[in-house]
Specification:
By secondary structure, the chain is mainly alpha-helical. The protein has helices at residues 2-22, 26-34, 38-48, 76-87, 91-103, 107-120, 125-137, 141-154, 162-173, 177-188, 194-206, 210-223, 229-248.
Length: 254
């Protein structure tokens, strides 16, 4: 019996530390202590396991969450494309090789062929977008933004709004708050990207526009009410963060 109490105590300490890092509602602390050890288990399943680790930076597109691969291991596809480049040296083949590396998360390897493709044929939109994604994945946000700016000028709806959203992210992550605000505003005027709402609100708050930030967070939460279950689960992290922001500012929503 003592071993179970010991293990429960370890779990409780672990969950309390997680509660501190996440700045969760104080009700969870009460539950964990008064319903020991069931409360700690409930916190683990309903909070910790459902949200990203607070120590992990949020805001990156999903396909950039994995660490980049830098070691080149040729596959049949890359060998075929390299052979085509050797024989015909067409911009399209450089583009396809770069996009293949991008898909494999070999961002450093993706950049040279994509640059070559764009230099020789500026109309290769997929190569431009792939180059921007590669720069973004390597945290070269200014270079990514320069490419995305040109893409968005031609088509603001490129990749269903992900291009202009990526541009807003690049501005924010490079510290250009003024441009980030304008870009996020353009995003939320046309798309329901909850992450865009959240970071737009934080930037408003940072500039002293507290009420506008609060209204934006409320709008985010309000928009979540009619989401289907699969979409709600996908956006849950940003919804919970919006609730935390409001509670921090003395606002409790039902």
């Amino acid at each position: 019996m003592n071993i179970f109490i010991f293990l429960g105590a370890i779990l409780l300490i672990w969950m309390v530390w997680d509660w501190i890092k996440r700045k969760e509602h104080f009700v969870w602390l009460i539950i964990m202590f008064f319903l020991f050890p069931v409360g700690a288990l409930a916190y683990f399943f309903f909070v910790k396991s459902r949200a990203p680790d607070p120590a992990t930076p949020s805001g990156s597109p999903g396909f950039f969450n994995n660490p980049p691969q830098t070691k080149e291991i040729d596959t049949q596809e890359t060998l075929q494309l390299k052979d085509m480049i050797g024989k015909f040296n067409k911009p399209y083949h450089h583009q396809e090789l770069g996009l293949l590396y991008l898909e494999e998360k070999k961002y450093e390897l993706a950049i040279p062929p994509l640059k070559e493709a764009v230099t020789r044929d500026p109309d290769l939109i997929d190569a431009q977008y792939g180059l921007a994604k590669s720069f973004y994945a390597l945290q070269r946000y200014t270079e990514a933004a320069e490419i995305l700016e040109e893409l968005v000028k031609v088509n603001k709806k490129h990749d269903y709004g992900n291009a202009i959203f990526g541009l807003a992210e690049c501005y924010r992550l490079s510290g250009d708050d003024e441009k980030a605000l304008k870009a996020y505003e353009a995003v939320i005027n046309s798309y329901h990207f909850f992450k865009a709402y959240y970071h737009y609100a934080l930037l408003l708050d940072k500039r002293g526009k507290k009420q506008e930030a609060i209204d934006t967070m409320k709008s985010l939460i309000g928009s979540s009410k009619d989401l289907p279950d699969y979409k709600l689960e996908k956006e849950r992290h940003w919804i919970e963060e919006a609730y935390k922001f409001l509670r921090k500012n003395g606002i409790e929503l039902a």
